[in-house]
Amino acid sequence: MLFFSDECFLMSSINNNNNNNNNKSSEMEEVCFVNNPKMEKLLIHMFELNYDNAKSLQSLAKYQEAAESCNVILNKVESTLPEGVPENFATDYKLQEIISKAVELLPELWKLSGNFDEAITSYRRALLTHWNLDKETTARIQKEFAVFLLYGGVDATPPKLRYQVEGSFVPKNNVEEAILLLMILLRDSSLKRIEWDASIIDHLCFGLSVSGGLEGLAKQFEELLPGVLERKLRYYILSLCYHGMGEDVVALNLLRILLSKSENPNCIKGLLLASKICGENLNFADEGVDYARRALPELQGGCALMGSVANCLLGISLSDEARCSVVDSERVKKHLEALQALKNAERTMIERDPKIIYHLSLENADQRNLDVALCYAKQLLKLEGESSLAGWILLARILSAQKRYSDAEAVIDAALDQTGKWSQKELLRTKAKLQVAQGRVKNAVETCTLLLALIHVQSRRAGVLFKGNCSHERSLELEIWTDLAKIYISLSQWRDAEVCLCKSKAISPHSASRWHAVGLFYQAKGLHKEALDAFVEALGSEDTYVPSLISTANILRQKGNNQSISLAETYLSAAVQLDRMNHSAWSSLGLVYKQRGKDYKASECFEAAEVLKESAPVEPFRQPYFF
Fold it and tell me: Where is the signal peptide (predicted)?
């Protein structure tokens, strides 16, 4: 048992050390503490008193006082050993144990007291000061700090540079600091320095996802040593990363490996993700159908929400497969199956799912069930609190297909009133097309001009220099200049049309839509040879560009010879195959059949063209957005 005089001696020694600025004296006193068993016992006794006091205050919910009591221990150690605790500091394990517990407890107490700035300071102090902590204790502190930074809802000031080694990475915000800590933990886990903790992966995935660092996350998983993470889980997480990065082919290849017979062919999450990726690419539509159908039996009697998602993905892939079908009967069958799958998704969803409602509206619109499509589109807007740009545009397109142009424009105006300025671009583009459909060409020009000004102002504010063709903003600007050129062509304002075509050429000289507009320009001026060359250039850039297939066929048809008419029929058959709902393609094909004396086929084409024209929207229902 220690006597009061011993404690006074200890306090006196510590105070003397605080007031002594002589380096040699400090080093001698440090050696005294290291090699003096009596002093070590005195330290243990004092630190135990402070630590027990902190724990007692914590149990009484007096977190502020508890933190202050715990802080005394660390302050005394730092003042006595300013260079940190040496590895041979304690001959008795008890002393090191108390220091380790105090270092780990202090930030938790500050968090409980609501003093988050002090908690962050204590975490950094615990990790940046040499306390001679073991690897597991350090790992726990690193993980707790990372979790607090990610989910604590507190903006931490960046670490001070004086704590950093020269040339090292300095985190700029909470997420970067948390990611750095988690990457250190992941490295130590993979090198077997600490026990494996699967939650590190979860937190790292979250941190890198919210910071847009999916490429870095993929790299971390690829660099993990074999055996650290289960191979099946690695395939799935990597596929998620690459899908988020837009590398869908790479993601799909990883999922194919995961879902092979030798790995995990019945992985529900993998099947659903693979079906989702395939549903976004027409080339993989049949594969998407297969994955969704494989997932559905695995979900029988299970989660209703997952079953609803699987049916929705099945409907999307079936719809894509239908649009790729060559045989009419097969296409009709696939469309009906797609609609049924989406209805099954609607029936089994627990709550109204906007994605399912959107695709039900879209599929019905594609099949020209316009009243049903309109009903679903209105449901979608109500469900999302009239905040869905895609919902507003789809509703306007459906109304335009019903030839309710003024109503469609009113919908767009309502959307513009509820949408921020920088999100209005696609709405303005649709409005311009509605104005053209109503013959209000001057208003359409004004709308396009406003849209172009909005794009330019936004690009300057964001400091973006459009020097590539991959930017959505750049693609939208190209389409607007092309649309504006077509308007001027229809007004025979050749000079203005040429200016617009030059602007579009500066953005993308090889764009199929630009070359098509050039062809329309020459065709309107009666220069059919130059127009044909331009349309051929468009097809050279994109051989499935339907407007140029139709325009090329129309020029060839006008030549009147058998070879040209036969070639025109080939182009138009391809156009009809690519876009079954294009009334211009059917009408032109009917003219070709009429020239060739096939009156029955011609009448069928004209009838189809008339029906489709009556329900044609101002822009395709599935035209991609530039949001």
Answer: none
Give me the DSSP letters along 447-491: HHHHHHHHHHHHHHHHT----SS--HHHHHHHHHHHHHHHHHHHT
User: CA dist 592 to 59, 60, 326, 602, Å?
Assistant: 90, 91, 21, 8
Instruction: Give the CA distances from residue 557 to residues 208, 525, 550, 567, 575, in Å, rounded to whole numbers and listed in that order.
Output: 57, 18, 10, 8, 15
Q: Is 52 helix (H, G, I), strand (E, B) or coil?
A: helix
- Residue at 324: amino acid letter: C
One-letter identity of residue 137: T
Apex 421 CA angle, 419 and 422, nearest 5: 105
Nearby residues of 574 by Cβ (< 8 Å), 6 or more positions away: 549
Q: Please check whether residue 127 is in contact with residue 143, taking contact to mean a CB–CB distance below 8 angstroms.
A: no
Q: Contact, 214 vs 180, CB < 8 A?
A: no
Q: Give the pLDDT band of residue 31 (cuts 50, 70, 90).
A: very low
Q: List the one residue out of 177, 621, 556 whose CA is nearest residue 390.
A: 621
Give the model's confidence band at 334: pLDDT under 50 very low, under 70 low, under 90 confident, else very high: very high
Evaluate the CA torsion angle 244, 246, 247, 249 in order and state its sign. positive
- The count of C-alpha atoms lying within 13 angstroms of the C-alpha of 339, restricted to the half-sphere facing its C-beta, is 17
* Two structure tokens written together for 123: 């975490």
Confidence tier at 329 by pLDDT (50, 70, 90): confident
Its pTM surpasses 0.85: no
292-310 in b/e form (b: 16+ CB < 10 A) is bbbbbeebeeeeeebbbbb
Place of tokens 């504010």: 461
Answer whether 108's CB lies under 8 Å from 63's CB: no
Pinpoint the alpha helices (H) of 81-228: 93-113, 116-128, 135-151, 174-190, 198-210, 214-222
∠ Cα 562 564 568 (to 5°): 115
| The pLDDT value given to residue 387 | 81
Q: State the angle between helix axes of 63-80 and 23-35 in degrees (0 to 180), rounded to the nearest 10.
A: 110
Closest CA to 555 of 593, 520, 604, 514: 520
Q: Are 479 and 430 in contact (CB under 8 A)?
A: no
Q: What angle do CA 249, 232, 227 make, to 5 degrees?
A: 125
Whole-angstrom Cα distance, residue 29 to residue 45? Answer: 19
Q: What is the 3-state secondary structure (H, E, C) of 2-26?
A: CCHHHHHHHHHHHHHHHHCCCHHHH
Percent of the chain surpassing pLDDT 90: 48
| Residue with token string 């997932």 | 295
pLDDT (0 to 100) of residue 48: 82
For residues 177-189, give the mean pLDDT. Answer: 88
Q: How many CB atoms lie within 10 A of CB 435?
A: 23
**DSSP secondary structure string for all residues of 533-551:** HHHHHHHHH-TT-HHHHHH
Burial category of 534 from C-beta neighbours within 10 Å (exposed 0-12, middle 13-18, buried 19 and up): buried
CB 245 within 8 A of CB 211: no
Lowest-confidence pick of 16-20, 208-212, 565-569 = 16-20
**Predicted confidence (pLDDT) at residue 95 exceeds the cutoff of 60:** yes
Could you give the 3-state DSSP secondary structure of residue 502? helix
Residues shown for the chain: 627
- Side-chain half-sphere of 582: how many Cα atoms within 13 Å? 23
Q: Is 164 helix (H, G, I), strand (E, B) or coil?
A: coil
